[in-house]
Amino acid sequence: MRYSEMFLPTGREVPSDAEVVSHQLMIRAGMIRKLTSGIYSYLPLGYRVIRKVEQIIREEMNKAGAQEVHLPMVQPVELWQESGRWEHYGKELLRFRDRHEREYCLGPTHEEVITDLVRNDIKTYRQLPRNLYQIQTKFRDEVRPRFGVMRCREFGMKDAYSFDADEASAEISYEKMFTAYNNIFRRCGLKFRPVEADSGSIGGKYSHEFMVMADSGEDAMVFCDKCSYAANLEKAEVARPEKKKINDKDWLTLENVHTPNVRTIEEVSSFLKVKPQDIVKTLIFNADGQSCAVLIRGDQEVNEIKVKNYLGADELELADDEMIKKATGAPRGFAGALNIKVKVIADYSIMNMVNFVTGANKEDYHYRNVNIGRDFNIESFTDLRIAEQNDKCPRCGGNIQFARGIEVGHVFKLGTKYSKPLKAVYLDKDGQEKTMVMGCYGIGIGRTVAACIEQNYDVNGIVWPMPLAPYQVIITPVNVNESDVIKAAENIYAELQASGIEVVLDDRDERAGVKFKDADLIGFPLRIIVGQKNLALGKVELKIRKSGENILYPLEKIVPTVKQIIAESLNPAAK
To answer: Residue 88: its pLDDT value, please?
Structure first.
């Protein structure tokens, strides 16, 4: 491609509304343009990168035995009502009516549609397993779109769905996709890590996120420095502590203390002159309309995802003042476990506590010297808190490390969450009707591109890994008005094109410095610089963007050298 013919509007200024590097550089490098909040147009350069990610995905999905389909983006209300998600999905689901007043939504995901397709055409165990995937536009009405294509409202996604006869077969399908995802992100040239994750609104029994390691990542993740354990912060487990033997002779006398206008942990700690870790917080939650009390040590934070999953709740939120008053008999800030009339669950963090402080379920009062077993009982303890830096690995006891990451893919074991309500059934070999077991597997296409940039840039611009670079090589004639320079550049350009190399010839009549800045900004992995001085010696200069190396090569060796570098970058095993 000739630069002069390209639609490639680059810019020097950092956009004022671009918060992260990928957003800034995708705009400055002429890859995207904003249409409206959370909705972007991909320009030719950006779309080439998108198509490269898609091609890698297609090759690995096809290799894993999945088959490509294309499903409608507009979905009828009836399917979502069958699954139960029409009421529960939330405001991210963009609902609308057509001219006949029939209700629809723009698909944020396609579990309902694919299950409907399969239930109508697969009838027997002989037709299973099946794995169907698509690369399609999704729409989620994000409350606050941000970070460019990292968190936008309209986006491209690869979503796949497996259908199996039983759990054992579903496990095989899941492992195939897990392997395929590792291959996809490895081929994209990314540094990533699969981590255990919560299934969220998609649901299901088990899932992994694929996280690209980046300091700018929205998501926190933890991993062990000794074993392979890794999880996002929502899912990160806290190991059950060893139960200590408590001598009831150490229990101090229970005191009911007047604490006027003292509500928060900080206020209670200061007023009673105790440490936050000597206080037990009692948080009242609304779980599907029912009150529930969660006990946790005062210096730690409740993980609401863990609470929700433990209770098996569809919806969970902190209770309002009215629900708190009804549950405890006191206003907010004075809840405690003694004589409370609602379900109580307790975090591991309070298991070995003695003589601690809690609310007294009475306005302006707290209890001091509370003890489990004397003043109230807990049937069982569980993991309900957010993991912290000093926690140990729940698998091997090693040290937990924290890092930031960008979620680019997610694989789910759905079980029968959708196949059961949508009646996706088949006849087994004995003629008995059984429910299909499902899996779901998604990759954010634009998000993968943005994550790649977050991991590969410098002060001058993007540093594309070879597999995702929009073009592999740019040829930069220092002065297009010098006949021998432009002739040599044209010859190299023709040879590379004939060899199947993706190459741009910067044939603009611009200063060399302008061309160099644009090449660095866009991030071409290789730049061939053709100048009068080196050409007189029969040589041209090759700049490697990633390392910054500048090497002179004889003119006749530049094309085979470039071909070899590209081949080794795309297939490291060939080195």
So the answer is: 86
C-alpha count within 13 angstroms, C-beta hemisphere, residue 517:
10
Q: Per-residue confidence at 198, pLDDT binned at 50, 70, 90?
A: confident
Within a domain: 313: yes
Same domain assignment for residues 108 and 222: yes
Q: Where are the alpha helices (DSSP H) in 31-70?
A: 44-63
Contact 208, 180 (CB under 8 A): no
242 domain-assigned: no
Instruction: Identify the residue with better confidence: 397 or 62.
Output: 62
- Clarify whether residues 218 and 255 are in a common domain: no
d(CA 444, CA 123) in angstroms, rounded, equals 32
Concatenating the DSSP letter of every residue in 309-332 gives: HHHT-S-EEE--HHHHHHHHSS-T
DSSP 153: S
* CA angle centred on 367, ends 362 and 369, rounded to 5°: 170
50, two tokens: 């998108």
Separation of alpha carbons 76 and 73, rounded Å: 10
Q: Indicate which CATH number applies to the domain containing 147.
A: 3.30.930.10
For 472-527, the pLDDT digits (tens) are 999 999 999 999 999 999 999 999 999 999 999 999 999 999 999 999 999 999 99
The answer to whether residues 32 and 135 belong to one domain is yes
pLDDT the model gives residue 573: 59
In a domain, 395, yes or no: no
N residues, the chain: 575
- 248 neighbors 374 (Cβ within 8 angstroms): yes
Q: Quick check: 203 pLDDT over 70?
A: no
The total number of structural domains in the chain stands at 3
Q: Quick one: how far is CA 113 from the chain centroid?
A: 23
Q: Is the CB of residue 282 less than 8 Å from the CB of residue 367?
A: no
**Is the domain of 180 the same as that of 315?**
no
pTM, 2 dp: 0.88
By three-state DSSP, how is residue 295 classified?
strand
Same domain, 375 and 313: yes
Q: What are the start-end ranges of the H helices in 188-290? A: 265-272
Mean pLDDT of 186-191: 96
Whether residues 220 and 260 share a domain: the answer is no
Residue given tokens 């088949």 in the structure block: 426
Final residue of a structural domain among 382, 415, 444: 382
Residues 122-141: tens digit of each pLDDT: 999 999 999 999 999 999 99
Q: How confident is the model at residue 218 (pLDDT cuts 50, 70, 90)?
A: confident
Q: For helices 445-455 and 44-63, give the axis angle rounded to 10 degrees.
A: 110
Question: What is the domain extent for residue 529?
Answer: 471-574
Same domain, 406 and 378: no
One-letter-per-residue 3-state SS of 417-431: CCCCCCCCEEECCCC
Question: Phi and psi dihedrals of 269, rounded to 5?
Answer: -60, -45
